[in-house]
Amino acid sequence: MTHESLRDLLPAYALDALTADQAHEVSAHLETCELCRGELALLQETASQLAGATPQVAPPPRLRDQMLAAIHPQPRTITIPRGWAIGLAAAAAALVIVASLTAARFSREVVLLEQRVARQEQILSVLTGPAAKTAVLAGVVQANVKFVYDPSRGEGALVVTDLRDPGRQQVYQLWLVAGSTPESAGVFRPEAGRPIVVPVRADFTKYQAVAISIERAPFGASQPTTTPILTGRI
Amino acid sequence: MRSSAMFFSMHTGIQHESSNPNSRITPIREIVSLVQPVAREGVQDRELLAGVARRNSGAFEALYDRYSRPVYSLALGMLRDAQAAQEITQEVFLSIWRQADEFDPTRGNVRSWLLALAHHKTVDAIRRGRLRATEPLEETQASDLDVVEEALRRLEQGRVREALVRLPAEQRQAIVLAYYGGYTQQEVAERLSIPLGTAKTRIRDAMIRLRGTLAGVKEATP
């Protein structure tokens, strides 16, 4: 069909009044014709006004719950500390402790293989201890990331259960924020399908927030170069 | 170092000379509000959709709260079946969750796009239903005109209804059957016993006229 004859079909296309075959032809034409795309945008606006003239009725509230459940395949929160105790103890064998790679003021020794188990137990004891506090990080990405810490012992850990892969060129970097000054607490990559833990040893009374930004692989930056994607108050 | 220091002070708005004891707390609030734009009122639809494309569930919730009502109402108005309208609403929002990045801002606004998607899925459902249903053998022209009148009667008072009423009757019948009835132009032609070419012309003329009347009319915010 010619541009003219396809253009003639646009009003019917905007009303979904074409057969499937005709609609396919118009769709294909739209990919390459800016003129027709502009025309269709105007027609669709008119069509949406027709839509808006139907009596307005709110959908039942449970539909909202169903929708949100459908887009959250995993539970959004886990109770601390008991929930973690059960969940983490069960998952302990599969738990990956990620060593912080940057050298700064916090404890950031590279975790050697033989130290891993000890460290893992230490972290688990922090996470499940009675003094453990938790901050759920929230922001511009869908994630399940918590910062669990024990201010009295200066031990903490970032627990990353669900966070999108940052790609090969980038890593996530964890920051502790004192006033307006962020300090690096290490870089990490999430693992698909299993939680990871980034141990952090620090005087948590000094800080008011934790934040995660996306930085260049493999070592991150000395100071954030991008807006944090997740933050939590501690 | 300089740029990053600027970064945080810019984003937190904190003055370093501040001696206000609250200044220890203020920056976090501001960081948090910065990275959670979806929580704010008056966020643009496109920002919400961009958030949904980044799999931000908060943006999705906000978009749902903004548009579930018009989407559901359109499906309900056309299908007159609450269960089916809920299914359509669910389908629409799930497909947005999966394919928010398919929205092309050069192709119009989010509201139009979303309602076009809702209309499309509703028409699909109507046509599937018609395939299953046994059509009455003799449907008269009069019954189709009743359909049009009934559809018009159910529309809410307002600019759109008025604009439809002011169309020449033959254009109004054609566009109401097509849009609210979910009929193709061929079916509209058959139902109104007019040639296909005439149906096409009436539908096109009706759309052009409506566009002229309704252009620039602000939608009531849902």
Describe this structure in words.
The complex is a heterodimer of chains A (234) and B (222). Chain A has 234 residues and is an alpha+beta fold. Chain A has 2 domains: 50 residues, no CATH class; 155 residues, no CATH class. Chain A has 7 helices and 10 strands. A 5-stranded mixed sheet of chain A has the order 1-8-5-4-2, with helices on one face. In chain A, strands 3-10-9-6-7 form a 5-stranded antiparallel sheet, with no helix packed on it. In chain A, a hairpin with a 2-residue loop joins strand 6 and strand 7. The longest helix of chain A is centred in the N-terminal third of the chain and has 19 residues. Chain A is elongated, with a radius of gyration of 26 Å. Chain A starts with a helix and ends with a strand. The relative contact order of chain A is 0.12. Chain B contains 11 helices and no strands. In chain B, helix 3 packs across helix 4 and helix 9 crosses helix 11. Chains A and B meet through helix 2, helix 4, helix 5, strand 3 and strand 10 of A and helix 1, helix 2, helix 4, helix 5 and helix 6 of B.
CATH topology of the largest domain in chain B: Rna Polymerase Sigma Factor, Chain: A
Shape of chain B: globular
Say what oligomer this is.
heterodimer
How many helices of chain B? The count is: 11
What's the CATH superfamily of the largest domain in chain B, by name? RNA polymerase sigma factor, region 2, helix turn helix motif
The main sheet of chain A orders its strands as 1-8-5-4-2
Order of helices and strands of chain A: HHHHHHEHEEEEEEEEE
pLDDT averaged over residues of chain A: 77
Low-confidence stretches of chain B: 1-42, 134-141
The most extensive interface between chains reads: A-B, 65 and 94 residues
Name of the top-level CATH class of the largest domain in chain B: Mainly Alpha
Fraction of residues in H or I helices of chain B:
55-70%
Q: pLDDT under 50 segments of chain A (min length 5)? A: 74-115
Question: Helix amount of chain A, in percent?
Answer: 25-40%
First-last Cα distance of chain B: 46 Å
| CA-atom Rg of chain A in angstroms | 26 Å
